[in-house]
User: Fold this.
Amino acid sequence: MNGMLRADALSGKVILVTGGGTGLGKSMAGYFLDLGAKVIIASRKLEVLEASAVDLMEQHGGEVIPLACDISNAAEVDQMFQTAIDRMGKVDAVLNNAAANFISPTERLSSRAFRVIVDIVLMGTVNMTLTAGKYWIANRLPGSFLNMVTTYAFTGSGYVVPSAAAKAGVLAITRSLAVEWAKYNIRSNAIAPGPFPTEGAWSRLLPGKLVEEFDPAKKVPLGRVGEHQELANLAAYLVSDFSAFINGEVITIDGGEWIKGAGEFNGFDAVPQETWDQLNPKRKK
Ligand code: HXC
Ligand code: NAP
Assistant:
């Protein structure tokens, strides 16, 4: 649960975190500050960003610039990125973390409901990627993208189909540009987290009594949810120069959750010892 990297691991770096005013984005931004980076946090609600920027600087020191931006709007993303460059002088890495989601049977969704999620999750990442990527390429600068996906980006999942479709698209972009833009010294990687409690995710995905009925910790072989610092350690490594040869990778951090669902006999945890004894009476225990 402690910070992993040495204190100057991100010294001199400027990192732009979309959705950095809340939840996991804020936690990762805090650790980037601990490691010497300057941080830009960008999302729609300026008041939330401003309060978080003060909070982050009080807790971690360093410099945080809050910038209002709806990432689903390409013009706003261009303007926000230019402001970031004007005020910080550069941006070394973009953490595409902002997202939107809700839980719903798919047959209850309107086309607009589907599009709202895709516009933020997929097109928001597209807009940030085109803006930052074109800037780095035109100015012959290295860069790094770190994209937050989910484990259902590769498995799919019922009840969050717009998010699953959009995150799968983000994963495809990550792997595609890892190859296409490597010649410009731009890396692209992704993290697929399992359950990490945040107000944003829990209120949308486990509303009302669902949180009691579907305790996420019970689905995880390690029997617990993730700690924000564990995710921050991985994210800091992936935006640092220590991971310079990691490109096109998606790293799962979920305590074994998704693979548990995939293994044919993993549900046999529920078989009692006596049953095993009866099935194999001659075998030594
Ligand atoms: C069905 C719904 C709905 C629901 C909204 N809609 N909620 N449909 N079930 N629960 C429909 C509306 O009816 C409308 O369609 C359309 O979606 C847009 O609705 P709006 O009212 O405009 O939006 P609103 O409900 O105010 O906001 C939705 C949102 C908002 C944009 C997604 O919640 C948001 O800003 N979220 C950002 C933060 C967030 O979601 N964080 C969680 C990330 S968690 P119609 O046709 O009626 O107009 C995450 C974790 C993944 O990604 C993995 C976890 C393990
Ligand atoms: P969160 O706190 O709700 O964060 C979502 C952020 O996105 C908010 O700060 C929000 O800020 C921002 N945002 C939403 N729409 C935006 C838009 N149109 N433009 C700009 N910013 C926008 O949720 P979280 O749990 O920390 O999730 C962070 C990331 O981790 C997401 O990519 C999520 O999919 C991923 N993830 C989370 C979990 C988990 O268990 N928590 C698991 C797997 C993956 P504004 O409202 O101010 O715009």
Summary: Residues 111-138 form the longest helix (28 residues). Residues 18-19, 21-25, 43-45, 48, 69-72, 97-100, 120, 124, 148, 150, 193, 195-196, 198, 200-201 surround NAP (ligand 2) (CB under 6 Å). The chain has eleven helices and seven strands. The chain has a mean pLDDT of 97.
